[in-house]
Design brief:
Elements lengths: L9 H12 L2 H13 L3 H29 L3 H11 L7 H33 L8 H12 L2 H21 L6 H25 L2 H9 L8 H14 L6 H7 L7 H29 L10 H12 L3 H34 L4 H21 L15 H28 L2 H8 L3 H26 L5
This protein binds 4-fluoro-L-phenylalanine.
Length: 449
């Protein structure tokens, strides 16, 4: 067994966990999901899900990780033993590892799109581009399996290269500069969208309070996305929590991370929809949304090629730090249990995910019409299966374990909250979040119409 790493300070833990949370989910996925699910109705439910489900469950996941001090599978086994619960709870950790790898299968393909856009921006391809041209450029990328293959491979090599080197020598230092830089460049983009785009329409689209538009599907997607965006329900946050020192306040860390994560996603959304409306594009364009709209902004602003290149570099960085956290649970498990070196484990797992990614990238062209189940292609199946089922299920089980099986004194000890704050956490963790998740599942499986 190898020596476990540990964070140097609470600041590095926060940045690494924020690095896991902030990624393609905020910049690529949230904006298009808002458009596909009817705008403000989705935003409202999403914010409610972050507050009442995401934040309490993030605290839960960190507390489980810190108490266990192990990878999710062995960690759950240890906690179950301590709580005198069934050893089968370890499979919750096992499920999380698999979920992470399934997510990485498509995450890496989208990460590849971002990498290719760095080069496009630097080559000046966006200069003076029109809405129609920008959409055509993106379609051309999707139609070319070889280009997608090349960039997906690059993204996987970048990710596994860092994972192979371990927690302490990874990206923590770069995180310190690059996440604030991403915020800064986003403000530039927002300023530009405000001056030339239709910010009023964007604001109304995202924030007008119209409860009548809330549909069950919007609720389902918003809940799933709250998990995806905060990296919850699969053990990433648990592993990071397991490297966290005892004296750090879990609640405070969680609130900072959730705030930064949610704000970033909503700011990107505002900037994008402002451009969408000003250029008469469709808000419901789906997964290609940012790749079709942002080039228009970069193509027309002063220094656009430079700013665009920087922007896509920062997005790639954000995606990279998230991708690393997607494999960390599985790697931590192998390193702590098998006689295998971290490097070997990283490349072996990388190979499997890389193969899965090839199937995903083909589902944007050659295999687009190959429907696996319920009329969904490979990419759609992986996306829906992980976000709307596996992550919320993982979160639900963690909440039940921490709330009903773990000794109260243990959770209280880890959280170190005042009596009132602890009771609030318990109410959300034990009652509100589980009910919300179960209702969504009942709807999903068609028991409640
Ligand atoms: N939170 C990441 C994002 O928003 O891009 C995605 C992710 C990372 C999901 C790690 C789940 C996870 F465990």
């Amino acid at each position: 067994m190898q020596h476990r790493g540990a964070w140097k300070s609470r600041w590095t833990f926060m940045l690494a966990t924020a690095g896991s949370a902030i990624g393609l989910g905020n910049i690529w996925k949230l904006p298009y999901m808002i458009g596909v699910n009817g705008g403000s109705a989705f935003v409202l439910v999403f914010i409610a899900c972050i507050l009442f489900v995401g934040i309490p469950l993030m605290m839960t996941e960190i507390l489980l990780g810190r108490r266990a001090q192990k990878n999710p599978l062995n960690g759950m086994a240890k906690l179950a033993h301590e709580a005198k619960a069934s050893p089968h709870w370890q499979w919750l950790g096992g499920m999380g590892m698999v979920t992470g790898l399934l997510i990485l299968g498509f995450y890496s393909v989208i990460g590849g799109w971002v990498l290719s856009y760095i080069v496009e921006a630097a080559r000046g391809v966006f200069t003076d581009v029109s809405g129609a041209q920008s959409a055509a450029n993106f379609d051309e990328l999707l139609a070319s399996p070889f280009t997608l293959f090349f960039w997906h491979t690059m993204f996987m090599v970048m990710t596994m290269g860092v994972v192979a080197r371990g927690v302490n020598s990874g990206l923590e230092k770069a995180n310190n500069i690059l996440i604030p830089a991403l915020f800064a460049i986003l403000l530039v983009l927002l300023g530009y969208s405000m001056s030339v785009g239709d910010m009023v329409a964007s604001y109304q689209f995202m924030f007008s309070l119209d409860f009548s538009k809330i549909t069950p599907v919007a609720v389902l997607s918003a809940l799933g996305h709250a998990f995806f965006s905060l990296s919850l329900g699969m053990g990433s946050v648990m592993v990071y929590g397991s490297y966290l020192q005892r004296n750090v306040s879990i609640a405070r860390m969680t609130i900072y991370i959730a705030l930064a994560d949610t704000m970033l996603g909503l700011l990107v959304g505002l900037a994008i929809y402002s451009l969408v409306f000003a250029n008469h594009l469709a808000p419901s364009a789906g997964p290609g949304l940012i790749f079709q709209t942002l080039p228009i902004a970069f193509g027309h602003m002063p220094w656009g090629s430079l700013i665009g290149t920087l922007f896509f570099m920062l997005v790639a960085f954000a995606a990279w730090t998230s991708a690393i956290s997607l494999v960390e649970p599985a790697i931590a498990w192998i390193v702590e249990n098998k006689e295998m070196k971290r490097t070997t484990a990283a490349w072996a797992i990388g190979l499997a995910v890389w193969l899965l990614g090839i199937a995903v990238l083909l589902s944007f062209n050659a295999w687009k019409e190959v429907k696996i189940i319920f009329g969904l292609n490979i990419f759609e199946v992986l996306d829906k299966l992980t976000s709307t089922i596996l992550l919320p299920l993982g979160g639900l089980l963690m909440a039940i374990f921490a709330g009903y099986l773990m000794k109260k004194t243990h959770s209280q000890e880890e959280l170190g909250l005042s009596h009132r704050a602890y009771k609030t956490w318990r109410l959300t963790n034990n009652v509100i979040a589980p009910i919300a998740i179960v209702c969504v599942f009942l709807y999903l499986f068609g028991w409640v119409k």
